[in-house]
Specification:
This protein is mostly helical. Among the domains are: 66 residues; 36 residues. The protein contains three helices and no strands. α1 crosses α2.
């Protein structure tokens, strides 16, 4: 039954498309049989696609009415969450009330005005950190590339006019 309805919708839509296209073409001039056939084919294809899309939208609309909408589902979730949070808050309040009641019931020892708390160990004071160094004052030497030849410096000359040190390994002849 549903297929028969979709077929009739397709045919009606195709005929509407064909009529509108042919009316526009007649304003421009006369059309041949070949053009009319191609218009019919393309109109049928288009009608088929359009009816498919329309039927999908209709199905979504009918299934959506049976299901709950997103805002309803979200509201229900929020309600559950609020109830759960209220239960937790109630438990926490009960726990703190029990704790306070327990603290009040414990007898305080007679201390003659002295405190019963154990003295806390004094925390050592942290060492002061030295001021940060200014590293921009002495820049690091730039590395020289390995393939670069060293620069030529002035040659060092040895002074040969001064006396050479005497050999101390041989006994001196003067002293004897």
């Amino acid at each position: 039954m549903a297929k028969k309805e979709t077929k009739t919708k397709q045919q009606a839509l195709a005929s509407d498309i064909i009529n509108s296209i042919e009316s526009k073409l007649s304003e421009a001039g006369e059309s041949s049989k070949k053009i009319k056939k191609s218009i019919e084919k393309s109109a049928e294809k288009l009608a088929k696609k359009l009816t498919k899309l329309l039927s999908k939208d209709e199905k979504k609309a009918t299934t959506a009415t049976g299901k709950k909408t997103k805002p309803e589902v979200k509201a229900k979730k929020d309600e559950k969450k609020a109830k759960k949070n209220a239960e937790k808050a109630e438990k926490n309040a009960q726990r703190t009330a029990n704790k306070k009641a327990k603290d009040e019931q414990t007898p305080v020892a007679d201390t003659n005005g002295q405190s019963t708390e154990t003295p806390k160990a004094a925390q050592p004071t942290p060492r002061p950190t030295p001021p940060a160094r200014n590293r921009t004052a002495t820049p690091a030497p730039k590395p020289t590339p390995a393939n670069r030849k060293p620069s030529v410096s002035t040659p060092v000359t040895l002074d040969t006019t001064s006396q050479a040190p005497t050999d101390t390994t041989e006994p001196a002849a003067d002293k004897a």
